[in-house]
């Protein structure tokens, strides 16, 4: 026969189990909220005047390679509005790429909120400078997050685009 001690032990065990399951679900939920919050903050940075001005400068950039860039704008360590633009754009996307690599943000949210075209366009414009900077300062990992972000979006864009097309077509 089952006595009161055994019943209370079973109830206590069930309570602990329910608590662990709830806590696990809550942690997953909070992680999702933090990742979403981070992407929203990143989006507000992308829409800042500083970022938009830097984007306009980078978009107008016409260079063949790093040497051409240095010839037109001087050493990367000299003062120049173009260097500032490079730092703003490159640094921002490098940061996003690092967060993505460390699984601190979700690539789906990056794609949905920031998009891939501006990242691809900016990386295409700045790649010669990035490669030149790596060689110039002797740091092969300089702006590697930017490159990672670009490559991941390029690799995953077909499936990311497909999910949007599916959502779009299901609303018609």
Compile the SSE list and pairings.
Blueprint: H1 4-46, H2 49-59, H3 66-73, H4 81-101, H5 107-113, H6 117-137, H7 144-170
Helix pairs in contact: 2-4, 4-6, 4-7, 6-7
Short recap of the structure:
The chain has 7 helices and no strands. The protein is an all-alpha fold and 172 residues long. The longest helix is centred in the N-terminal third of the chain and has 43 residues.
Task: Walk me through what this model shows.
The chain has 172 residues and is an all-alpha fold. It has one domain. It contains seven helices and no strands. It has helices at 4-46, 49-59, 66-73, 81-101, 107-113, 117-137, 144-170. Helix 4 crosses helix 7. It is elongated, with a radius of gyration of 24 Å.
Number of helical segments with 4 or more residues? 7
The domain tally reads: 1
Element-by-element helix/strand order: HHHHHHH
Net shape? elongated
The count of β-strands is: 0
Biggest sheet descriptor: none
What portion of the residues fall into strands of 2 or more residues? under 5%
As residue ranges, the low-confidence spans are none
Assembly type of the chains comes to: single chain
Alpha-beta classification:
mainly alpha
The gyration radius over C-alpha positions equals: 24 Å
End-to-end separation: 63 Å
Helical content class? over 70%
Mean pLDDT: 89
């Amino acid at each position: 026969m089952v006595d009161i001690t055994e019943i209370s032990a079973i109830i206590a065990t069930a309570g602990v189990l329910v608590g662990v399951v709830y806590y696990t679900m809550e942690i997953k939920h909070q992680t999702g909220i933090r990742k979403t919050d981070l992407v929203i903050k990143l989006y507000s940075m992308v829409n800042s005047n500083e970022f938009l001005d830097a984007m306009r400068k980078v978009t107008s950039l016409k260079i063949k390679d790093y040497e051409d860039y240095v010839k037109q704008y001087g050493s990367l360590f000299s003062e120049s509005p173009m260097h500032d633009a490079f730092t703003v754009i490159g640094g921002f996307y490098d940061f996003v790429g690092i967060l993505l690599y460390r699984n601190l943000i979700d690539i789906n949210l990056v794609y949905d909120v920031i998009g891939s075209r501006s990242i691809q366009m900016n990386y295409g414009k700045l790649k010669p400078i990035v490669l030149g900077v790596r060689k110039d300062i002797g740091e092969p990992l300089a702006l590697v997050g930017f490159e990672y972000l670009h490559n991941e979006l390029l690799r995953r864009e077909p499936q990311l685009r497909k999910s949007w097309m599916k959502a779009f077509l299901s609303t018609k």
